[in-house]
Amino acid sequence: MKLCVALDLASKEECLKLASELRGLDLWLKVGMRAFYREGFAFIEELKKIGDFRIFLDLKLYDIPNTMADACEELAKFGVDMINLHASAGEIALKICMQRLNTLKSRPLVLGVSALTSFDEQGFHQIYKQNLKEAVENFSKICFESSLDGMVCSVFESKLIKNATNQNFLTLTPGIRPFKEESDDQKRVADIQRAKQENADFIVVGRPIYKDNEPRKKCERILNEL
Ligand code: C5P
């Protein structure tokens, strides 16, 4: 299991400071909309200069198929290591994105976003009119058949997804509170032990690391547990 640290801090300087503190640790960095929309690709180049981090660019693409495929190609050209697409963009969009990416010399890992971990059952039903677990299973099958590499999901759906597709189909799980910290706005949170039990391949941790007084020590503690 790999640790992916969410760089959701308010300024570029704070994000770069955190990355510098984490230099040398075996982890991924997750660059989200906040940093990317503010700083663009220059920010990712700076991160790569700081350390040998692998980068997950979490932009959750969602648009018509051709626009999504164009965006995927642009992101792939910048050498990020993982990107994600909303599964609800549909099978045609997902397949066209993968076809486009597979024409390139190398491509990032591509994950499908199923149900955001900020959704509880009621909030999810209000939008999708579907049971959350059934919807996640359905999204996952579509992503698997469209040749994506895995899913972004809550820990509680990781096994379900692997059983519905393939054990090698990756799961990346946000909503992790490694040592049962404050859940903030996340509804479906789990600790490391639970993530292990559910066979998650990646855990994403943001606030429990960057709000800690000693983020490097916190990461080391998490890595020890993994
Ligand atoms: O601070 P926290 O650990 O809650 O951060 C979780 C990160 O994972 C945030 O960057 C959030 O945008 C992202 N994420 C999520 N749920 C998803 C997909 C991504 O929380 N389903």
Task: Give the topology.
Elements: E1 2-6, H1 12-21, E2 28-31, H2 33-39, H3 41-50, E3 54-61, H4 65-77, E4 82-86, H5 91-101, E5 109-113, H6 121-128, H7 132-145, E6 150-152, H8 158-164, E7 170-173, H9 192-197, E8 202-205, H10 207-210, H11 215-225
Helix pairs in contact: 1-3, 4-5
The protein binds cytidine-5'-monophosphate (C5P).
The site of cytidine-5'-monophosphate has 15 residues, from strand 8.
Describe this structure in words.
The protein has 226 residues and is α/β, with parallel strands linked by helices. The protein has a single domain (2-225), classed as TIM Barrel (Alpha-Beta Barrel). The protein contains 11 helices and 8 strands. The chain has an 8-stranded parallel beta barrel with strand order 1-2-3-4-5-6-7-8, surrounded by 5 helices. The longest helix has 14 residues, at 132-145. The N and C termini lie close together (6 Å). It binds cytidine-5'-monophosphate. Cytidine-5'-monophosphate (C5P) is lined by residues 6, 8, 32, 58, 116-117, 152, 174-175, 184, 186, 204-207. Cytidine-5'-monophosphate is lined by residues 6, 8, 32, 58, 116-117, 152, 174-175, 184, 186, 204-207.
